[in-house]
Amino acid sequence: MTQNSPVKVLLLSIVTLGIYAIIWLARTRGEMVARGAGIPTTWLIIIPLVNIWYYWQWSAGVEHVTGGKVSTPVMFLLMWLISFVGIPYAQSVFNKVGQGEYGTVATA
Known about the structure:
Layout: H1 6-15, H2 19-34, H3 50-65, H4 72-81, H5 83-98
Helix pairs in contact: 1-2, 1-5, 2-3, 3-4, 4-5
């Protein structure tokens, strides 16, 4: 997974009024799908109520790439309710995945 500073990702998301956060979601989704996660298109976040389901699927992808070390409900709550905490936390998790700290995940 791409290595980024969690603080940088958060600050860019704030400065761009959330536009970078959407781009980051799409990029991380693509990387998780490449590792075998089943996450639908990021375009779903623009549809009310469907975006909740999208965030759940995205969070399940995080659980998949970490081999179960980060649970879907925890990641979902962080991303949906307090994204200013969830985004940097997710990026730090992705950094660990990229460094191999969570082991290898089979790709599809």
